[in-house]
């Protein structure tokens, strides 16, 4: 008899995961190293990071790899290949390891998500996995998919979030890549709006240069837009991304001061309050409350050992 499925919504189960690291699928060394990496969530990558000839090897490594990662307090995901390619063979093998999330690359529309959801449901039944417990992460990698992000994100209640893949999307757009990623500004903004509207996590694209400071700056820029999660391909970037996506001590102090000032003004019957030259109204107050709640949740999670401290 399988255990009861977690009734928490798919997005809510992963809201505190800041860094989503892709790990080479057939590399035992990379899999072992990932367990000690401070990334919050590990993605066993069977597509771009695993040559076709080595995919059977990667599939065989999946169950033990996922168990090792869970023992290290990590959230566990896998990216299979497109279902018209090696994806179904990938899925049948890796589902034995009970990944929490299945990511699908090259999604072109909601029909791809529905097909994946049906396949995952069948394998949950076959492997005695709690029904509905496996979440999905569609990858947005083309202009067509970008225009359909909301429809893709709402195609199944299993969708925890969507991930924007920078290299394929930039290639599809004909954009010239640069470390500042300015060529993807419009895409990142549009993608975030659709994910927020759909109520799922927007996982920002990875920073693909070997530059820790650049990765941190890119993550800070993403956070300013509203992102709370970012993918990465270099384990060395995990710490700076976690730090960028975690409210800093001074931010918490400023938010506490803003909340106190606004609540004091409201207690006296005022609609807003002037603080440091800024008119603080209800939206700013709400943002400050959310920042404090997230900071507290991340601190609690780090204390429990579920995710790494920034």
UniProtKB/TrEMBL annotation:
UniProt record similarity statement: Belongs to the HpcH/HpaI aldolase family.
Metal-binding keyword on record: yes
Residue positions binding substrate: 79, 141
GO terms under biological process: oxaloacetate metabolic process
Annotated HpcH/HpaI aldolase/citrate lyase domain residues: 18-235
Keywords for the protein's UniProt record, in alphabetical order: Lyase, Magnesium, Metal-binding, Plasmid
Protein name: Citrate lyase beta chain
SUPFAM superfamilies listed in its UniProt record: Phosphoenolpyruvate/pyruvate domain
Top-rank lineage group of the source organism: Bacteria
Cofactor(s) in the UniProt record: Mg(2+)
Organism: Tistrella mobilis (strain KA081020-065)
Annotated GO MF terms: lyase activity; magnesium ion binding
Organism classification: Bacteria, Pseudomonadati, Pseudomonadota, Alphaproteobacteria, Geminicoccales
UniProt-listed InterPro entries: Aldolase/citrate-lyase_domain, Citrate_lyase_beta/mcl1/mcl2, Pyrv/PenolPyrv_kinase-like_dom, Pyrv_kinase-like_dom_sf
Binding residues annotated for Mg(2+), in chain numbering: 141, 168
């Amino acid at each position: 008899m399988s255990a009861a499925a977690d009734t928490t919504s798919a997005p809510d189960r992963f809201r505190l995961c800041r860094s989503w690291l892709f790990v080479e699928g057939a590399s035992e060394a990379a899999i072992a190293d990932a367990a000690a990496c401070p990334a919050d969530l590990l993605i066993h990558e069977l597509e771009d990071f695993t040559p076709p000839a080595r995919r059977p090897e990667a599939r065989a490594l999946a169950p033990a790899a996922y168990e090792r990662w869970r023992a290290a307090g990590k959230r566990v995901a896998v990216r299979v290949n497109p279902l018209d390619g090696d994806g179904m063979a990938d899925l049948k093998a890796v589902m034995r390891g009970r990944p929490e999330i299945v990511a699908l690359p090259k999604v072109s529309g909601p029909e791809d998500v529905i097909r994946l959801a049906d396949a995952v449901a069948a394998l949950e039944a076959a492997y005695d996995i709690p029904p509905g417990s496996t979440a999905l992460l569609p990858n947005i990698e083309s202009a067509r998919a970008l225009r359909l992000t909301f429809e893709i994100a709402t195609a199944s209640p299993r969708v925890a979030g969507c991930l924007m893949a920078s290299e394929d999307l930039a290639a599809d757009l004909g954009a010239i890549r640069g470390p500042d990623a300015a060529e993807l500004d419009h895409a990142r903004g549009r993608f975030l709006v659709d994910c927020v509207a759909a109520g799922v996590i927007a996982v920002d694209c990875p920073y693909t240069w070997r530059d820790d400071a650049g990765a941190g700056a890119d993550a800070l820029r993403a956070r300013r837009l509203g992102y709370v999660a970012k993918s990465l391909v270099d384990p060395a970037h995990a710490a700076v991304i976690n730090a960028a996506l975690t409210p800093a001590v001074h931010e918490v102090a400023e938010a506490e001061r803003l909340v106190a000032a606004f609540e004091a003004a409201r207690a006296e019957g005022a609609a807003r309050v002037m603080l440091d030259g800024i008119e603080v109204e209800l939206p700013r107050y709400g943002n400050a409350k959310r920042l404090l709640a997230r900071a507290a949740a991340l601190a609690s999670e780090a204390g429990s050992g579920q995710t790494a401290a920034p």
